[in-house]
Structures are given as structure tokens and as C-alpha cells.
Protein 1
Amino acid sequence: MFPVKPGKPTFKSYLPQPTEVKNPVQGMKNLEAKLLPGEIVVTEVNFVRKCVGPNSSPDDLWGKLVCTNFKISFVTHGSLPRQKFQYTNRLLGEHDIPLAGVEQVVTVNEAKGKQKVLGSNQKLKFSPTELMVYCKDFRMVRFRFDEAGPDSTKKVCLAIAHYSQPADAQLLFGFEYTGKCFHSSSGDRANGLDPGSSLQTALFDCSSDWDREIKRTGASDWRVCSVNEGYAVSPSLPEFFVVPASLADQDLKQFSVSFAGKRIPMWCWNHSNGSALVRMASIRDPLQQRNLDRRICSAITKSHPKCSDVLKSDLDRSLPNIQEIQAAFVRLRQICVIEPFEENEERWLSSLESSKWLEYVRAFLKHSVEVVYMLEGQLCSVMLQEEEDRDLACVVSSLVQLMLDPHYRSLGGFQSLVQKEWVMAGHRFLDRCNHLKKNDGEECPLFLLFLDCVWQLMNQYPAAFEFTETYLTVLSDSMWIPVFSTFLFNCPRHCAERSRDFAQSESIKLGENKALRFPCVWYWGHQFSVKDQALFNSPLYVGKSVTCVHNGTVKTFRRTKKSHSATLRGPPSLPNGLTVELDTLTRRNSLALRLKPDPWQPREVPESPAERFSCEWLSRPVDLQGLLLPQLLPSHLQLWRLYFLRWVPEAQISRGGSVMAFHRLSLLADEIETLQNQLRQHRGGTPASTPASTPGTPDQESSRMYFKAGTPDDLPSTPDYLTSSFPFSPVGNLCRRNILGTPFSKFLSGAKIWVSNENLANETL
Amino acid sequence: MEKSGSADSLGSKRSSSRQPSVDSLTSTNTTRSDRSAHLRSAVSPDAASARTDLGAEVLKESSRIAEGELQLLPRESVQDTASDVTYICPFLGAIRGSLTVTNYRLFFKCLDKDPAFVLDLPVGVISRVEKIGAISAQGEVSFGLVCKDIRNLRFAHRYQEGSLKKSIFELVNKFAFPVSNALRMFAFEYGQPFPENGWKVYDPLAEYKRQGLPNESWRITKANEHYDVCETYPATLVVPANIPDEELKRVAAFRAKGRIPVLSWIHPETQATVTRCSQPMVGVNGKRSKEDEKHLQAIMDANAQSHKLFIFDARPPVNAAANKMKGGGFESEDAYQNAELVFLDIHNIHVMRESLRKLKEVVYPNIEESHWLSNLESTHWLEHIKLILAGALRIADKVESGKTSVVVHCSDGWDRTAQLSSLAMLMLDGFYRTLRGFQVLVEKEWLSFGHRFQLRIGHGDRNHTDADRSPVFLQFIDCVWQMTRQFPAAFEFNEFFLITILDHLYSCLFGTFLCNSEQQRLEEDLPKRTVSLWSYINSQHEEFTNPLYVDYANHVLYPVVSMRHLELWVGYYIRWNPRMRPQEPLHQHYRELLAKRAELQRKVEELQREVAGRVAVAPPEKAGSPAGSPVQTCV
């Protein structure tokens, strides 16, 4: 259909190219995998070829394939034509895949026409000639063993399959790693850990963080309670959380019994108008339901300065469930990376639609806008209700806060938000990531879905966020590095118990902390150099101090209570599941429209008050430091290309993509920064006083921007290394068997590879 | 008519008293007038930025004017005003207000609403006015206006029985279709002076000189000076040096409509060329022409780098073959040695028209939420865009990477051929990506080479079912937009520029897109009698420039032509929907940063001067990078 492959933009290598024909035997001896503390080599095989294209090519890399207790490492002397600016992860080499990021391991014997999906503790009756590793981050890597010894090949394949499915959480590498780091007392510094003091992220593991949050949001009638200290009341709630001031600890303990997971309703955030956002699990005891409901509501009402009503938002009834989201994700992966690029071109849009991923992204954003409307437009407190309050509520409450509170759009604020609404609120990261690969039914990319929603907001309002889409992508990739406490556990108690047990079993002497402290992902220095971390900073972000100037005059927004009261008089409160009703109404109407193609028939789509609120807001100029609502026409939601297509070579725009704009903006932002520093120096008089004046940036030399404006040269030349997948590179990371005529496709005869595990596993050959 | 007379004088008085020319123009562009009025003073960010130059007082005043007053252009006159008209807005419901019709525009306002609601559009965008149904019980008649810019408007209006007064919609009918009513188009009335004359933007000799022409292999010929070789071609043509003028006429006899292969673009280094023409008149019997074969051979020989010539036939092979029945066809590889024929599968104008009709159904007024993407897919609009871009990409790739000359044609060589040659040139030559270069490209490949704008758009013509209408130029602009999305720093112009071009493609305010060929334009004396769109654009180019633009040397663009990257141009097709806000434009933020940099540079310099004055020892070290210097990356 479209056989054009632009020949020109080939990758220019900035590294010295090995000129001699690659001899697999040469220099293979002294290849060693780089190991982290606590990492051990399980098994390895030499003379392995890593494929860089669908067919064998002279560019393929020769090296050693190593399986450790942490990663699949491919060590090579060869080099790929790679991006000059490619970022490097301190925990992983260029060709490494963390075992936790392995989705599926497929071994193939080409000659015998056999293939098998390998699970843990399985046998392999043929010696594989090829190994395909499908990764959770959408990468696919292919190794060939033409020259390797069959026995060690088999061993490595089985080891990879086995170690990527650990039987117990303690076998996740993070434990070994943290233990070793702890043993060596200077561990933190040795691993390039940031000293904890520089972390500007509130972790919400102590009452002072909650206190500060109460003060920041002006939630005067709310208090931090410590009934759950030592996880005495609820196993999945954090030790400290916030409740209405009118409820005594005694009441809370009494209430807790009736809630699912003994989860007492937990405060999330307060609007400046006094409305509060609260999340709550379902009430298990039907006899208590009414009574309890009333008491909780009245307590929340009491905590509202105007004692306004509490509205409930039933998430289970109006949002897709865990299984549906996972199914959408699997379908999306299918069309983005598994299906041959050209084949689904023609049906791309409808395939994308039938994956339902964007529909779900939209559903979450839409629901969040409705909650925002209740808080901001109706001036009411809102209670998010979900069966367990550990999944959908995490997404909705975080999105609502992102839309309402500019603090969370800063880097530190965003991290605190994830900490508060996901980690501390007890989102089951371990189960949802399916790190133990025990229960596929529990797996769900809910956090990625949230990041996608954030990306949609960011895509519509790029200047409102301090961080970039690269940051979001890297954050999501960090889920598959099983080292960070952030993504390793199901709740804070789980974290505390597991690390205590581990410490005991390994007889690690714990100091005052009484627990192993796993590094959290927010210590970015653990993974990236300071320079690479600059990729997280958006050059467009305007800080808090900037007033919004429109048409030359400073606008004060007419979002007065008066103008809203008119719209408020509609339904007094949104009943549960109102959205569901509305949806069916629209659908019915649209069916009628299809039957009547009269262009003059006025099509009146019923508008919910939230939609009217949203339309009204959209008609005003944006205040990036104020309320931010997404545009939710289906035409406004886009596929997050950087995340989903970054490993697809065919989809890469060389010297193009939004990074080109990012590059330009960064250079300018950097110039501005330099000028500001100069100004400060001039004003401060002596240069010695300058470092003190910038406490936020410890290193004066380190700019906030990744790209720096340098000395002006004669002619600007295109930054060749920039592509639409920057800072990632699909080169060498993806080898799909999409080319017809590959020996591979012969026996597959067009069958889709990504059938469910069982189907393939049954083909034990 | 007394009523209209008074309104007229009122309007003109107002306009003459306080009408900065810039402002009057802003209000004429239909881009966001519907919206922006609804948004009150929240004019488009682009317009707002242009206004920041003006003082704050002027601003306040102009925004007050914009709130609901009709501002007339020079020689625009109010024809009638009806005060009891209901606009049935698909988004906001029925709005009562007054409707004014001038010889240029239709202006509806409702001041009861807060913010005031205003609808302001040139009558030129209207393609059809129709009465809907019978008189209602309330004595109202409904009228529907189908517009060329992807919207339909519906009005209801009280019908006074027995009244001799004509309905205001009869006036709309009259002024929207001046050609059918033997009236002059407003472009001929409008005489706004601009500092620059846009008709001078394109000088063929200067453009060919820029390309290094003539050279030893190519010559500039005046053979078509009187348009007698080909009446739809420009007067100035570039042909192979060894083909004399007499032979051109014989080649013309073998090419449809006499559109002989002529040079569009030449590669500055490899001398590979893009040439364009119409289909050869092969017919069912496989006719041949020695002169035509020699001509193509000469084109190939002019490029020493390659011994091959690629002929890109834009059509699907079936259509090309079907053309043989009508005497046309395609080059056989037997007759043309060393030529390789490639079909690009782009469909004809009728398919494209139908596709746009479907697209309009899908996007206006409301988007069906549940099946958006599959509905979009069923219009095939993006698929057509993809095929056009893919064709252009293949051409550009052959020329740049293959160093091979290419010949591009379709049937007549004025629709698909224009799309392909101009897009390929846009990929190959950075000049065309500048604000002025793009104007040259449109003037050259579209206007001078006879894309039949009058027929394809149907300016002022009531016959809305005319089979000659087709959104060929819209597709081209859409393709350009797709490229600007993929290469945000490679174009000097912005999205607003593209939208402005499209708006004035229909508005008939400027003479640029009138008529079908260079010959017709000269006959009508358009450069003297009308204003060029480029006069307007170049007089306030800041509004249309993309500040992110960098002129990287020898940067050939290879867009990724895949559905994964093509998007529906929401900012154009869905702009009437109040549930969308024009995308936060990056360049707006960039401008703010630029201003900030300038301010800081000033401050730093001031301080340095102060320090230097105070200390009076050695001057302080060089401060930062000087203003305006090209920024360069270092790691």
C-alpha cells in the first residue's frame, strides 16, 4: 500500500564505527555484565546475535547474553548507530532488560518449525535458535543463537523465563539490592543516591506532611488522625491520614469495622471555597449502611465552612473496571507494536477505536471534570466511592487535583500527588504490575492510564506543567525496575512488613528505622545523571508568580459565585450514576440522528451541567495557574505517541516531532536563565553570594534545560540526532517479524503471535 | 429601503471615525469571528498578540467595538437589516437578534445575550441558500445556508404576509452569488491600500533565477507569451535547452490541453528536476509522438546523474487506463526508453468532493462521541491525504536520494499534479517553507499553472451541484498542515496563516484566488483591479510567523506518511464547535519567552554599563549571547 521508505535519513553514527567485519569469536572472552550490588549472574551464553532488523543484517550485534537475578543483559563490543543525546540509565545498560519488565518469553527453533512460550519451571524439548523477549514497555528484542552452544542457550532461555516470574515478592531484586546497599553503610552515596534532604517531594508517611497539606489547602476543619499507627485499624490505609475534625478517634475505630478493608473515608484535598474531596470504600455491613453514610456525610458537611452538601460519585458504576482496562491495553499493544506496521495502516483508526483505550482515557477525564464541577461549580464536597477505594479512585482523585490545583502541576507537587493518592492510599502496585506473574486477572496498567490522562492535559496545555512527557514516560518505565518502594508493594503496611521480614531473614541489623528503606523512585539521581534529569523540565512552565496577561490587561476572572448560581439551580445534587443515564440518553439520541440525515434538523445534544460548566470555562482565556479543564471532544484526545510508538522504527520521524519545538524552546529558556543569573550576579555584587541565592539548584552550573544555548556558530544545522522518539531510540530495540518471506512467517502463516499465554503454551512441542 | 439607508450611513460613519485598518481586517477574517464574538474579547491568541503592540487604550476601544458592532470595509455598504431573525445555533439553541446583509458579509448579532453573540461571515463562503419547509404556525420561514468552510447555518425569520418587502435572505442570495446575478464581486470594490503590493510577490524570472535557471540544459522560453501553446499555462516556461519552440507546439498537440512537460524545480546540486505536464494523448490505439518522446529524453539527459526517468502518474492505474477511451492514457514503457512509470493511486476530484462531504457530516455540528474514529475513517479523508503526501514523498525521495529526474502528471495536470509537485517542492526546498516562499509556491504551482480555482471553488456561483467543484486546494493546505505538525520548527508560517489562506480562498475579498488561469487573470486585469491576499498578509506578517522556525541548511523533510501520525486538522474542521478551544499555541509561549529575553538583555546591558561607569576599570566580561544571534546547541 505504501512501500515508500525514505532512503535519506539514515542514522549517522557519532561513535567510531568498527571497520572490520564483526567476527563473533573476537574479543568475546572479556565481556562482562555490569552488576549492581546484590546482583548475581545466573547463567550466560556466548556468541549470541542481537538482531537489529527483521532479517539478519550485518548490523546485528554479537555479544554475550547474561541472565542475572535482576536483568537480561546483552554485553557487546559492537555498537549501534545511536543517538548522540541518548540518555543512559544508571541501573541498566543500553541493551539490558529488567526481568520485571519481561512480558513474555518465546523460544523458537526455526529448523524444526517449533516455538514455545516459556513460563517458570518449564521444560524445553528443543534447542532454541531464537529468543524473543516481549517487554511490558512495548519493546521487543530478538536474539539468535546460530553460533552459540545449544546447552547453554537452553539454560539461558529457561533461566530468563524462570527468573522473570519470581515465586515470591522477596525474590524481586529490590530486596537483595537494598539489603546490600544497607550492609555497606556508605551504600547510599556509593550508589549515587541523592541525599534525602534534597528531595522536595512530600512522601506522606508522617503526620507532618499531612499537616502541611492541610495548611496549604486551608482545610481548617480537618485533622490528621493516627488511629492507624502500626496499622492497627486498617491494613491498607497509611499510618496517618486526614479526617473531619468532628470525628473522634473512637468513632473512627467504630466505623472502620463496616468498611471494606476497614478503610475509613480518607480526605484527599480541599478547595479554597471549602469543599473537600474525600475517598471512601464501600460499606460492607448492610445494616449499618444508612446510618454510617449519614454520619460520615454530616461530619464532612460540618467540616465545610458553608456546611454545603456532600455529593457522591460512584466510580464503579460509571467507569470501566480493571479487566476492561487491561483488555484495552492488550489490544492497544497489539495494534501498536505486534501487528505489522503496514498491515493495519488502512484500519488504523478503527482499530484504535476498538481498542477502547482512548475511550477509557476520555471516560476518566470526563468523570474527573464532573467531580471538578461539583467542587468548583456547585461548591459541594465530593465523596469518591469505590468498592475497595484502591484503584479507580486513585486515578480520579489525582486528576481532579491536577485540574484544580496548580501546585500538583509542578514536578515536586506531582510526585507528592502520586505519593498521596497512589502509594499511601494503597494502590496495589505489586498486583497491578503483576510482578510475580501469579494472577493475570489482577494485572492492570491503571497507573499508565493515569499518566496518559496527564499527558492529554499536558498536550492541551503544554505551559501549565513543570515536567515533560519524557518525565511521564520515564516514570512509567521505572515501574519495571523492581527496586523502588514506590511500585513494589500493595500498600504502606505491605512495604513495612515485607522489608522487616526480609531484614530478619537476612539478619540485617536494623537501626532506628526498624525497616529497610527502599529507595523511592523520586530519587532520580539513582537512575539518571543530573544532566539527563534536565530532560524532565519543561521550558514552557511559568511559575506561580506570573500573572496572567490577556489582551494587554491583567484579567481577573469573572468566575464569581454569582455567575454560577444560575447554573447551579439545576439538579440539587448529582445522583449516583447520573453519568450512566446521560450516556444512554446521548446514545439514544445519536441513533435517532443516524436515521434522520436531514442536515437542518437541529441536533440538540443534551448537555449535562458539568458540560455546560466546561463549555463556559473553555470560552474564557486560560489561567495556567488556575483551573484547567481538558477539552473532551473525542477528536481532542490523541494517542500518546512518544509512549506507545517510541520503539516502532517505521513511526519515527527523523529530525521531526515535537522535540524540535522543545529543542528551540529549551535553547531560549536557557538563554533567559543565563541572563537572569548574570543579572543576579550584577545585583549581588560579589559572585560569592550567588550560590546562596539559589537554594533550589545546588549546582550553579547545572542549567534547568537539557539543551543549552552555546556560542553562536556560522550556520545552524539540523540537530540530526533528534527524532520524534527522542530521547528513546527504536534502533536495535525492536525486531518484528513483519516482513513477508521471513522464514518465520512461513510456519506462523499469518497467525497472530500475541495469542493468549495458554493457547501458545499448550502447543508444547 | 429607507431603513437600510440609515443603517448604512450609521455604519459608515462609525467605521470612518474609529477604524484602524488592522482592526477592520481582523474582523473580516472569518476564522474565529463566530467564536471570538461569543468569547467576548477573548480574540484568538494570535490576534491578541498582534494587538499587544497597540496601546492599551486602543485595545479597550477596539474590543468594545468588536463586541457587537458591525465594522464596514472600504466600499462595503449595508444592504438591509432585519431585526427579528432567529439564528438556530446547533450549539446554543435559538438566538434572536438582528441580521444585516452588506455587499460583502452577513452579520448577525444578539446583544441580549451575555456575552454578546455575533456571527460575522463573508457571503462568499455560502455555497447554497435554501428555504426549509413551509411557513410555521408562528409565521416564520426557515432558511439554511450551506457554507464552504465546513458549517451550516440556519435562520428563522418572520414572514410578513402581504408585505411587499423582500425577505432578507433574497438579498443573501443575491450577494452571495454575484456571478449568477451578473454583479461584480466584492473583490473588485474593495480598495484597501496596503504598504506592500502582493501581486509582486511572484516574479517567475526571479524565481527561476533563484533556482539557477536558465543553465546549459534548461532555457526559459516565451513561446507561451500569448498563451497560444497552452492557454492554461503561464507565459514563462522552462524547457530543455535543446528543444526549440516550434517543437513545443508539436509536443503540445500530444499532451492533454496542450500542457507540455515543463520544469517546476531543479535540484541545486544534482540537477535532478521535477517536471509537470498532463497525460499523453495515447488513446485506445496507442498513439505515439516522436517529439514528446524526444522531449522526455531531453529532460532525462539534462540530469547527468541518472540514466533513468521516473514518470509519476497520480491516478490509480484503472483510471489511467480508462482515460484511453477518451483519447488520453499514460506513457508506455516501450515508447519511452529508460522511463519507469509509477501510479500513485490518488483519486479524482469527485471522490475527494464526496469524501469532504462525508467529513463535514461527521464533524459538524456535533461529533458522535462513541464512534468518532471509525466515522472519521469511513470518510477516507485522511486516507486521501495520506496518498497525496505519500506520492509527494516518493517524488521528493527520487529526486533527493535517487538523484533522478521525475515527470509528474495526472489527467489534465492541474489538480493532483499541482498537489504533488508543490508538496514535493515543499519537502525539497526550504525556501518554500518561508512565509514568502510559500506564497511563491502557491502563485507558481497553483495559480500560474492554472489550477482552476474559479471552477473548483465556484466563486459567486449559485450552481452548488457543479461537478467541477472539489476541495483540491484544501487538501493541499491540509497536507501542509500535516507537515507542520511533524516538523514544528521547519516552517516560517503558522497554522493561522494556513487558516487565513483558506478563509480568503472563499471570501472573495482578495483577487488572488479568482479566475482559472494566468491568462484569465490578466484579461480581468486582477492585479490592477483587486487587492492580493499577500498584500494583507505581508503587511502584518508577525501574526502569521512561527517563532520556532529555524532555517536549517539543506534540510529535506521526509514526513512519516502513516495513519499513526496523520491527524484530523481539528483547528480547521472543528473550529466552530464551542467545546473546543484553539490549541494552546506553542509559538505564543515562545513569543512570551522572546520578550522576556529581550527585557533581560536590556537589563543586563544597563547594569553592565552602570558597573562599567562606576568601576571604570576593565570592562566586564562579555555578557551572554548577543540579541538576535542564532542559537546553537552544545552538549
Note: Chain A touches chain B through 99 residues (CB under 8 Å).
Protein 2
Amino acid sequence: MSKDVSLMDTLWTKISAVLPKDEEQFPLPFGDIVESSVVEMLRRSRRQLYSDTTSASRMLTAKIILDFSWEKLNTGTWRHVDKEWRRVYSYGCLFKVAALCRGDPSAEDVLEALRTCDMGLLMGAAIMEDLLQVIVRILQGDVRKSTKEEDSEHPEVKRIKMECPHVPVIREEVAIPRVKRPSLESFNTNYLLPLKPLILEGTIEHWPALNQHPWSIEYLRSVAGCRTVPVEVGSRYTDEGWSQTLLTVNEFIDRYILNKDGVKGSGYLAQHQLFDQIPELKADIRPPDYCCLGEGDEEDITVNAWFGPGGTVSPLHQDPQQNFLAQVVGSKYIRLYSPEDTDKLYPHQSQLLHNTSQVDVENPDTERFPEFAKAPYLECVLQPGDVLFIPVQHWHYVRSLELSFSVSFWWS
Amino acid sequence: MRWFGFGFNAFGQIYGQDKLLEGECFENEQEVKVSSPTELTAQEDRSDCRLKTDCQIRASWSRRASLYLNGDSCVCLSGFVSNESCGSPVKESRGCKDAIISESYLILAFSDRLESWDLQKKETSPSWSMEIKTDPEISGTPLNLPLVPGGYIATKTPLYRSLSPHLRAKSLALSSEHAILLSASGTVYTWGLGSHGQLGHGGLTPEEEPRAVEALWGMPMSCVATGGWHSVCISDGGDLYVWGWNESGQLGLPSRGLRKAMQQQSSQQQEESPCTSTAEEGETHEEVFISIQAFPALLDITPSCEVSTVSCGCRHTAAVTTTGDLYTWGWGDYGQLGHQTLISSDEPQRVELFKEQQMRVVDVVCGAWNTFASVVKEEVAGP
């Protein structure tokens, strides 16, 4: 009992140690786009941080800031949301976290604080030298300490939710070629310049994700279990029932990978820049050397995580950049079509989905889409250690055959 | 006529302004979130606005403007304003015919010109102004802010936007993302961003130019209003149509997000373990939740009642019936629904206080997170 209390007491000590010492040293610089009434609220929160007031008052001011900036974040298209509003949102998260962790926070308060940091990292923009990232690490340490004893007693039940009886046999004539550790030159000449797909073997063996810290459900739980991530729910993004929700990694694993609570429907942690959010995982991977053949810098490479049970499907679609899809855990069936055959692939007309085909690749409606059967393709079963080069604008369809974790690198 | 306000009051824009020093705001929940209708009082000892004069209300997020139009017309501001101007009429507003307020500026309409005053800077001249032409061709257009002769005043610069005269605009409602226009013939046009279905054309794509809402074709409308991401209109016959985003129940249709949040709240309050997951499965699969309504839907507020006027805040809606009742629904975190709670609701509910005090609601105007209703004493029916 007293052990718990002393753990919680030091949490605020650790957090206040990374905050500015006083109000004067706490910057609140904002551009004109943030109205003075909102700046007043922010200043109020800053004042409350260093003065003696009630937790309820602090939470209320933070709530006002969060509610207002949330509305700005949802106004217009995401791309055009002014970065200032995302910073305001992050400040709101910071003040809320400070209010939650003050004094003697309960275990729920700490989890709520963690969730709030993640919301700031997901929707906000970096403030005060990425202070939310610093605080999230402190909070994670705190959560790990207090749950250590509980964990070790429950061995992980590795039940895979969906049975995947249909493992396709790859015909030689349509197999994507495989080359072990091609030289930069030969890759450039034979595949990148002519835009030809290739599976590169033996190029990520050195990744810690396949060596020192082999990625597994247990490892992911330990590194990121209490972190909040966006999850796609519903079988595929072209379906009516498709939606996105926010879950902790633990909840995602329990519900959609281990199917512990019997919820129907599939979930996929897809197209998320998880490695910006969780630096420990970033340290387990490396951008492929072949990206240097492109024009951009390493910072311009978009790295996404794709983590889900067997049966997740990405419908046939194309992307505006080159892609290296690295397979870390489990296997995926992938089919590729050339952009030259787009006319046989029936892309959606709408602006929103014009990069997505209407055809269900493994169960095509031959009446609605008669030309589809004539479109030539290449296919593969991507295994751990493989990296698939998907040339820019190449149509690709992906279905996981079992629990799978892939990392994609979009580059130009 | 008396005005009552409820909802967001952190800047004293509903009541209590006199307790706050300049630039201060309320900190405790009761004062920030006014969940029960509270009468607005004019601070007549600090102003010369006649208390008994009928006034109109305009509200933004942090301020409220009281518009006195009889005789010596003027605008008085409350909320996030400088100490001197609190309660006293805005001197630049003397003689104005109409006004609208946003978070950053106050637009005043005079008989010969429009002016925009920056609320964040103390300046002696308007930041923008425009002559109103008394062109006989368009003089038929009544001044009905944000509609002005030949066009309208937008929520961001450039402030003046022209409108085609063939639209015959009668009234216009704007949010930061979209616009809804009512023509003289009762046709509804929408344009702007549509990613939350707020344009009512059945999709999520934006429209650059005013486009008639075909689903309402043949039904003349009499009133239009916009929230942050939703639209409402009233037909000549008193029916209410809603469309757009329903994340907080602002359309009055079943909202999944709302039910989930309520379930989470109630499960947190249960002290006993274990909260089984049947709570989620229990939500029967028959119930259809609507998060985006891309076509207008008829909303039955209460059987056999006609709606006379409607107004929307960012995420809530308030409607007045011909029988003098006020119904509210949507986001309620700051008490803006007026039901003496801080609960959001996806079902229209009557604000009982007015009924209890035998007051007849005649008008409603919403700020971003609050609601203002004007009432008159209900005439007691004779024997």
C-alpha cells in the first residue's frame, strides 16, 4: 500500500521536473490566427499551473481549450488546418495532463493522462521541444511499474481470430521476381527506372525487429500496450460499415487479434505513423538503403505501420509514391497490376476513391467488371524478411494470411 | 420582451460580467456552465440603452451583442470586452440598422454603408467598410445580415462576396465551412465544404457555387440555420428538416458516439466489478445510428407541433414551436441545452423552465456554445 503511494507521489515530481520552472519561463507564442479570447484561456491555464487552485478549475480551463481547438481541427480539410490550432490542441492536452497527474493521481488518472498525451501526439503539433513525448515516456514508466506484478501470471493465449484456409499457391508465370540483396545499381537499372516490381530478400535481416527485439504480441504490449492508436474497423475501407476508432494497443490486441470479447467484425491498425508516436519501435527498424536512389531526404520518407490479424484486406488501389513494403511478422498475399491496365480495373469515379478499384480482386463480379479477367498481374506471398518494391502508381491488393505486421516506406 | 441565456459563460457573456476584471474569466463550473436559463439584465446604470426597448441578440463564442434598434439604435457588448465598453453601447454603432458578431470582428450595417470593427484591437476606424448602393435593381433585397445588397458578408476575408441576383436571396446562414441560402420562392441552396454531409446533396463532396437542395424541391421553406457542421430548415407548414454531422446528436437522430459516451460514464460510476462487455453487445442491432445524414431528414420534435423558428450553435440545435415552447438537442457539455444538466442529447427535449414559469418563448438565437431565448408572459386563457 505504502509502496503504491510513494510511486504516485514521485510521478508529479518527475513531471514538474520537465515543465518550465515558473510562469515567466513558460512560452505561449501564437500567431494572429489564434483569437485573443483563446490566448486568454491559455494564459489562464498557465497561471493555474503555478498557482494554488482546484483540480476542477484546472481541468475546466483545459477542457475549454481542448473543445475549442478540437472544433478548429475538424473545420476544413485536415491538410489545411492551421498548425497553430494543432499547437493549441497540444497545449490543451499538456494542461489537462498536468491537472490529472498532480498530487495523488489514481491509476485511472494516469491512464487518462497517457491517452491525453497520445491525443496530443496524434492530432496536435509538437510544442515545447516535444514535451508531450517526454511526458508520455514518464507516464509509461509509471504504468509499467504498477502493472508489473499483475502481468507475469497470465501467459499469452495465442488464439488467432480468423481462420485463413485459403492460402493461394503462386504460379511461376505470374510470380513477382525475387532477388537476394541486389546492388543499388542493379536495382536502379532493372527495377526502379523501368518501374518493375521486385521482392528484395535478405535486406532487413539486421533489423532489431527481427533480431534483438523480435516483434511479437508480448513485445508490442510491453513497449506500447497502453498507448492509444487509430484502428480501422470493418472489413475494408470501401465498405459502408467501415469506420475508424481510437483504442489502446492492448485493447486492439485483445479485441481484434485475440478476439477476447467476441466482438464481430475486423480491426486493422493500418496506415498509421506509429513510429513517430512510439520512438522505441522506430529504433527497431531502418529505412531501406535503396531509398537513397530517390530524390527526397530521409525525413521525406513516410513510414507506416500495418498490424492486424489474418484476413485484413486492403482493396486494390494505387499510391502516388514509390513503396517498400517490409514484412516483419506473418505473411500476406499480394497482387499487383500495372498502371497501364488501369482501364480494366474500374476505378471509382468519385474524387474521394478515384485511386481505388471497384473490383474485389479475389471474388470479382465478372458481369459488372468483364474486362478485369483480362488484366495481367503479378502476385506473391510475402514472408517475414521480404521487402516488396511496389513501383509508383502500381495497383496493389493485400490480404493478410495470419497475424501480420508490415512496415511501408513511401518515398519519391 | 425578456431574454434568457444558458450555456457557456466563461467570459460573463450571459451574466456576472460585473464580477470579472478586464480580460478575466470565470473558473468554477457553476459560473462557466450555466445549465438553467438565466435572465439577461442590461446594465442600465452604465449605459443609456433603454431597458424596456426590445432588443435583438447576436452571439459569438466569447461575446454577446445586444442590438437596440428603436429610436437611438446601438449595440452593447458583453463577454470578452474591455472594461470601459462592457455594458455601454459601442459608440461606433450609433445609428446602425443591423449587426453580426464573429469571434474577431463586429459587422455594423448602416443605411448607407457597412463597417467591420476588429474586436481584438482598440482602433478608431473600421478595419473594413463598404458603401451600400441604393441601386433600384437590387434595392428590393432587404438588408438581412449577413445578406447585403448584391451579396453577403463572409466569415473570413475577403468579407464581401457577391451573389447572383437570380438566386433572389431572402436569408442566409453561414458556418466556417458552409452556407445555406433561402430564396424568395422558398428554395434552399447550399455550398461550401461537404465532408460531413452538411450540404444535403447526398454526398460528401464540396460545392463551389450555390446548388439547390433537390430533396426539398417543391416544399417552400421559411427559415434556414447552420451549426458548425449541420444544417436545418423549416418548411412553410412548420416541419423541421435536418442534415449534416450528428456526432453529438445535433440532428436529433440516434447518435452512436453519444450512447457510447453515456455507457462509458455509467460504467465508470459503477463501483462493483466486473463490468461485463455485454453493455456494448446489449445495444441491440436493430437500432440504426446516424453519424452523417447527407440528405435532409424530417425531424419530428413533438407530435402535432409546428416549428416557428430555429437556431444552431456549433454542435447543438434549438427550435421554438408555434405554441411557445423551446426544444433543444445536441451537445450539452456547457449547459447549452438548458435542462439543468450537462448531458448531451440526441432527442429533442423541451426546456421546462419556461413552461413552469408560464413564459411563451418567441425567439431563439444561439452562440457557439450557448443559447439565448426571448420570452413574453403567457396570456392566461379565460374561462
Note: Confidence is low (pLDDT under 50) at residues 157-162 of chain A.
